[in-house]
Design brief:
single chain; binds glutamic acid; 14 strands; 22 helices; three-stranded antiparallel beta sheet; mainly alpha; Glutamyl-tRNA Synthetase, domain 3; Glutamyl-tRNA Synthetase, domain 2; Rossmann fold; 505 residues; three-stranded parallel beta sheet
Length: 505
């Protein structure tokens, strides 16, 4: 039997982390078992459903690379079928008309509470009515809801995550399946859609556990085979409370905006509630499909750790092919104002490769190749890229203080010596390394003593990729210009950035 799973988001909010994790687990199973992944947008709550949320959810799924095989179906399109299913239950005696007024319903609840159990008074009233009395009420046009008649006994299922799970039916209300305005309720619509779409495994969050016995009973009453169920534990914030906005960003789109890679997000979400059973942590999408199984979904809640997400992102960044990163990096550079605005139009135009964008003073693939192993996010990569893209150098006061200001005379002497050596040097990594090592040797100092002041001069920073690679990236002209500007500063005793973040023009 082909596995048929579904992701059924309600477009009442953006795609959040929990929803994305549910979508991912369904997708992984479908891909692993050659199954079918159905996407169904549950838009029956007209008040709260928004088109923009549907768009954001679809965008989020596409961004994560969770492609669906069927859909998107919209629950609202099935209203007639939902109604027909509800009426079939009435027909077969498994549902009844509830003509209760709001006052009667409130009184029923009070009496239930006093008795400490469900008295099912609406059901009793329906049973006590004769056919003629019911006809008369219908003739009068009295509004009614349809309620499902919960049978006695217990509802038991073998949850694919939690194992055997039971609910006593007396705890379950005779749920409304069709409201008095004729609209179906959530549980009925879900069951009707799952039957229609041939879903044979319902994999969703633990927050739906209490709906499951109702859905099983409805499904049985409709004479259909009950699907399997798997309930995935909640995601908690670092304080052990259910993950919410209080803990920071919970919408998947926020992570996209921050420069998290979809590969890293998918990897991170997979580890929220699933464990591979060994100590591997970094997985590609294909490796996840290979390794994933419901047996290893954890029964306990898992904690959302954003530092781990950043770490994973760094791991994926470093592993990704540079050419795949060029486009997302270019977008970030534009977003950060590091490339001129016309670069954005050119990039969107799609006919120019990112490395040929206007306003790029360095070879983009080289820059990305150097930085991808040092940054955890694209945003961080963009920050690290500043010295190579901006004409004006920004000095980190701490770098100036440590490598120039402590002993300005020595720093000046080193930069002057470097100028002399570099002016003569062919601008290639090996030659530059040989020249600078040679200078350190002649001066009788460690290589660091020469490189640190040089790095401040050409990048303004304490750290950077290897200095020889940086010099090649910047090119001869820019490197020497920056070196000479550094020398001027030190000569005039007018250090940049001491305690301030100054720029050098
Ligand atoms: N639409 C429901 C939700 O977003 C999910 C229903 C289901 O998975 O059965 O919570």
């Amino acid at each position: 039997m082909t596995l048929r799973v579904r992701f059924a988001p309600s477009p009442t909010g953006f795609l959040h982390v929990g929803g994305a994790r549910t979508a991912l687990f369904n997708w992984l199973l479908a891909r692993k078992e050659d199954g079918v992944f159905v996407l169904r947008v549950e838009d029956t709550d007209r008040e709260r459903s928004r088109e923009e949320h549907t768009e954001a959810i679809l965008h989020g799924l596409r961004w994560l690379g969770l492609d669906w095989d069927e859909g998107p179906f919209f629950q609202r399109e099935g209203l007639e079928r939902h109604e027909a299913h509800a009426l079939a239950l009435l027909e077969s005696g498994r549902a009844y008309r509830d003509f209760s007024t709001p006052e009667e319903a409130a009184r029923d609840r009070e009496l239930d509470q006093e008795a400490g159990k469900r008295l099912r008074r609406a059901r009793e009233r329906a049973r006590a009515r004769t056919r003629e009395e019911e006809e008369a009420l219908l003739q009068e046009g009295r509004p009614f809801a349809l309620r499902f008649m919960v049978p006695p006994g217990e509802t038991v299922w073998k949850d694919r995550v939690h194992g055997e799970t039971r609910f006593r039916n007396e705890e379950i209300d005779d749920l409304v399946i069709l409201r008095s305005d004729g609209t179906p309720t959530y549980n009925l619509a879900v069951v009707s859609d799952d039957l229609e779409m041939g879903i044979n495994l319902v994999l969703r969050g633990d927050d739906h556990l209490s709906n499951t016995p109702k859905q099983i009973l409805l499904c049985e009453a409709l004479g259909h085979e009950v699907p399997d169920f798997a309930h995935v534990p909640l995601i908690l914030g670092p304080d052990g409370k259910r993950l919410s906005k209080r803990h920071g960003a919970t919408a998947v789109g926020d992570y996209e905006g921050r420069g998290i890679l979809p590969e890293a997000m998918v990897n991170f979400l997979a580890l929220l509630g699933w464990s591979p059973g060994d100590d591997r942590e970094v997985f590609s999408r294909e490796e996840l499909v290979e390794a994933f199984s419901l047996e290893r979904v954890l029964k306990k809640s898992s904690v959302f750790d954003s530092r781990k997400l950043e770490w994973l992102n760094g791991q994926h960044l470093a592993r990704m092919a540079t050419d795949v990163l060029l486009d997302p990096v270019a977008r970030h550079l534009i977003q950060e104002g590091l490339l001129p605005s016309e670069a954005s139009e050119v990039l969107e135009g799609g006919s120019v490769p990112p490395e040929d964008l206007p306003g790029l003073p360095v070879h983009l693939p080289t820059l990305v190749g150097l930085l991808k192993v040092r940054a955890r996010t694209l945003a961080e990569l963009a920050t690290q890229a500043r010295p190579y893209l901006l004409e004006e150098l920004e000095f980190d006061p701490a770098a100036v203080k440590k490598h120039w200001a402590k002993d300005p005379e020595t720093a000046l002497a080193r930069l002057e010596a470097l100028e002399e050596v570099l002016e003569e040097c062919p601008w290639e990594e090996e030659a530059l390394e040989e020249a600078i090592r040679g200078l350190a040797g002649r001066l009788g100092v460690g290589l660091g003593k020469v490189i640190h002041p040089l790095r401040v001069a050409v990048t303004g920073r304490m750290s950077s990729p290897g200095i020889f690679e940086v010099l090649v990236l910047l090119g001869r002209e820019r490197s020497l210009r920056r070196l000479r500007a550094g020398i001027r500063f030190l000569r005039t005793d007018n250090l940049p950035g001491e305690g301030r973040n100054e720029t050098l023009s």
